[in-house]
Amino acid sequence: MARYLGAVALAGFAAGAAGAALTLLLHLVQHVAFGYTEDTFLVGVESASSLRRVVALAVGGGVTGVGWWILRRFTRPVVQVEDSLTDPDSPPLRLPTVTTDAVLQLTIVGLGAAVGREGAPRQVGGALAAWFGRHLGLTRDQQRILIACGAGAGLAAVYNVPLGGAVFAAEVLLRSATPRVVLTAVATSMIATATAWTVLPDQATYLVAHFPLTASLLVWAIIAGPLFGLTGALFVRGTNLAAEHIPHGWHLPVATVPVFTALGALAIAYPQLLGNGKGPAQLAFTGGLSFTTLGVLAVLKPLATTAILATGATGGRLTPAFATGALAGGFLGHAWSTLWPGTSSGVFAIVGAASVLAVMLRAPLCAIVLTIEFTHIDSVVIPAIILGVVLASTANALASTARTSMETRATRDTTTRRHPRPHRALQRPSRRAGTGAP
C-alpha cells in the first residue's frame, strides 16, 4: 500500500509539472508564430497579417509532418493511453516517444492547427504514471488505474479542472467507480492541479457572465438537446473516419503541408478557426459573434478539425467538440430568441458545448463537471445544462442502437442472399419419385 500511495503522489506531481511545462511551450510557439506578447491567442492571430497566418500554418505542416514521419518510421510505436488500458498485449507507454509526440502536438496547436491541446498532457501524464508504476513494482491492475489517473491529472493541470480530470479518468478511461479508482483519480488530479498553480493561473478557462435560469432556456434545452446529439454524433463520425484513413510514410508530410496551408488561407477570413477552439467558444459565451458567423463557424470548425486529423497529425478532440457545441448552441439560441426573447445567447452556447462534449466523450457526468469547472457557471443554470446533456446523450444512444440494429439486419439479409436456403422440393425427394412412378 505504501508503494501505491507513493506512486499516486509522484504521478500527480509529475503530471502537474509536465502540464505546466507543455503549456509554457505552447505559449512560446504561439508568440513566436504570430508575433504577439500579450492578450489572448485569438487577438494575436487577428493582429497578425494574412501572409503570416498562411506561412505559420504552412511551415508548421511541413515541420511537424516530417517530425511525425521520422518518429513513426524510426522509433517504437507511439502507444495511446486508451490502447494501453484496453489491450493487455499493447506495448508499454514509452516516455521518450510519447513526449516527442506530445511536443509535436503542442507545436501544431500553437501554430494554429484546429485540434485540442489536451491530448499532449494526457499522454505524458499517463506515460509518467506508467514509468512510476513499473519501477515501483505495482501490480498490473494498480498500474492500469495509475495510468488512467495520471492521464486525467494531466488534463486537470492544464485546464485547472481537478474534479473534471478525476471524473475523466474514472468515467471515460476506466469506466469504473470503485473506491480505489475514485480516490486515486481525485488525489492525482488534485495534486497535479496544485502543482501547476505554481506556474499557471488559478482561474476558469472561460470567463462568463452571470446568467439567470429562464423558462425559455429550459424549453429550448428540451428541443435542442436531440439536435446536439446529432451534432456530436456527426463530429465523432467524421473525426473517427479521418483517423482511420491517415497517410503513412513520406505521404504524411505531403498531406500536412497543403491542408495546413489551406487552413491558414481560410483563417484570413475566419481567424477564429485557428487553435483548439477556445477563442470562438469564449466569444460565443459572451455574445461576441453574429448569428451568421456562429452558423458558419459551427460548420467550419469541425470540418477543420477533421481535415487536420485526416493528414495523420495527432491532436485532441475534447476542446474542438466543446467549441463546436458552443457555436451550434449560440446559433440555435439566437434563432430561438427571435421567438422567445429574454435569454442571453451566451447561456445557450454553454448548454450546447456541454451537450456535444457529452456525446463525444460518451460520458455525461464528465461533460457536466468539465463544463462547470471550465466556466465556473452559476449553479442556478446547471439544471439546463443537465437537461441538454441528458437529452443529447439519450438521442445519440437511441440513434446508435437503431443504426446497429439496421446494420445487423442488413448483414443478415446480405448473407441470406449469398447463401440462400435450398428450396423445400430440393431438400427431400417427393413421394411420387420414391415409388418409381413415371
Description:
- By secondary structure, the protein is an all-alpha fold.
- The chain folds into 2 domains: 2-196, Clc chloride channel, CATH 1.10.3080.10; 215-399, Clc chloride channel (Orthogonal Bundle), CATH 1.10.3080.
- The chain is built from 19 helices and no strands.
- 53% of the residues are buried.
Give a short synopsis of this structure.
The protein is an all-alpha fold and 438 residues long.
Features:
438 residues, Clc chloride channel, 2 domains, globular
**Unreliable stretches:** 425-438
The average pLDDT score comes to: 92
* Tally of separate helices: 19
- Tertiary shape: globular
Oligomeric state of this protein: single chain
Summarize the helices and strands and which ones pair or pack.
Blueprint: H1 2-34, H2 41-47, H3 50-74, H4 81-86, H5 95-110, H6 119-135, H7 140-159, H8 162-174, H9 179-196, H10 215-244, H11 251-269, H12 278-286, H13 291-310, H14 318-339, H15 345-361, H16 364-375, H17 382-418, H18 424-427, H19 431-434
